[in-house]
Amino acid sequence: MSSIKYILDGNVQLMHGPGDTIPTPPEGARNVRVISTEEAESTVSGLPRNRRRNIDRLRDLQVRRGISYDQGSGKDPIQVSLKKPWDFIAILGIAVRASLLVTQGETRPVLKYRGDGDVTHTLTPQEAIAFATTVFEHVEAQYEASWMAKDGL
Length: 153
Description:
three-stranded antiparallel beta sheet, 2 domains, alpha+beta, 24% strand, single chain, two-stranded antiparallel ribbon, elongated
């Protein structure tokens, strides 16, 4: 059996031909090459692992892109990116501090978050909790989508 390996729509594809006949790849295929039976078998066994890595990369990209948090009440939205671990840690810290301030009865805007574009936003503890919750929900949604995609492999 002869096989070819190629890329189509960003995915590695295999095509097998009967006997020694080399199959013809579909239109739009890139990086076409004839491969051995052993390489074909090893590629097939590695496809789910490669797809899982791609799913993880897409998830991480979506998380890093962050969100635009609408504060409502005519306030400017908070632009949040999570490009560095520190970005997420800062939001986690705000959530913890806000929770503590709520238990102390604080209602004034005393918490600051500096979003993308170096814009500083001052939030009440309740606003900070809502903000952090929305950011966490964004991250959770990306993970849940990646888990569903992986479960489909």
